[in-house]
């Protein structure tokens, strides 16, 4: 199902499949996420695109259901995408209209700040990275099942070596 969902996602967004990594950013729904964590993530994308080639990445925003009414994260993602659309090393941005299960199925990596879905990502074997303005000591970070990224050098390194961070639950 992953390949079919991936094909649909990329075709729907006019993206040719060249083997890009599809990273799904699972959004939150609280003020810290909107005002600090998400802007920090977008800043890491901006800085990272200036230092590394992210053109092989497709970043998908999977909004928290409660955040859709407000659409703050969608607007921030769309603003970022329009600003960096012509930057050759920038990733492609997609706003998902799929459900979270389909988003997980298509994900080559899961990015998040605070989400109760984190354990699902790990159990599904999806490489998972916490990304934000500061480390949030959730169950994944505390148990070393997900690295926490707050600096661009960390972000670039982990994205380049994403499959090394695939967790196997014993």
Distance between the termini: 25 Å
- Helix share, percent: 40-55%
Tally of strands:
6
The proportion of residues in beta strands is 15-25%
- Total helical elements: 7
- What is the alpha-carbon Rg in Å? 15 Å
Principal-axis shape equals: globular
Spans where pLDDT lies below 50 across 5 or more residues: none
- Structural class call reads alpha/beta
Strand order of the largest sheet: 3-2-1-4-5-6
Order of helices and strands: HEHEHEHEHEHEH
The average pLDDT is 93
Largest sheet: 6 strands, parallel
Describe the structure.
- It is built from seven helices and six strands, in the order H-E-H-E-H-E-H-E-H-E-H-E-H.
- The longest helix is centred in the N-terminal third of the chain and has 21 residues, at 31-51.
- Helix 5 links the parallel strand 4 and strand 5 (128-131).
- It is globular, with a radius of gyration of 15 Å.
- Strands 3-2-1-4-5-6 form a six-stranded parallel sheet, with helices on both faces.
- The protein has helices at residues 2-12, 31-51, 72-84, 100-106, 118-123, 139-142, 152-160; strands spanning 21-26, 57-62, 92-95, 109-112, 128-131, 148-149.
- It has 170 residues and is an alpha/beta fold.
- Helix 2 (31-51) runs parallel beside helix 3 and helix 2 packs across helix 7 (152-160).
């Amino acid at each position: 199902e992953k390949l079919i969902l991936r094909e649909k996602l990329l075709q729907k967004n006019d993206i040719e499949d060249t083997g890009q990594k599809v990273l799904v950013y699972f959004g939150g729904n609280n003020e810290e996420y909107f005002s600090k964590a998400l802007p920090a993530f977008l800043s890491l994308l901006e800085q990272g695109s200036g230092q590394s080639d992210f053109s092989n990445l497709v970043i998908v925003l999977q909004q928290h259901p409660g955040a859709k009414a407000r659409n703050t994260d969608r607007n921030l993602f769309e603003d970022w995408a329009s600003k960096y659309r012509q930057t050759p090393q920038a990733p492609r941005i997609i706003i998902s209209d799929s459900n979270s299960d389909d988003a997980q199925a298509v994900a080559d990596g899961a990015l998040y700040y605070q989400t109760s879905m984190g354990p699902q990502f790990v159990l599904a074997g999806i490489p998972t990275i916490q990304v934000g303005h500061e480390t949030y000591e959730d169950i994944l970070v505390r148990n070393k099942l997900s690295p926490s990224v707050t600096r661009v050098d960390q972000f670039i390194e982990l994205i380049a070596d994403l499959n090394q961070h695939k967790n196997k639950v014993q």
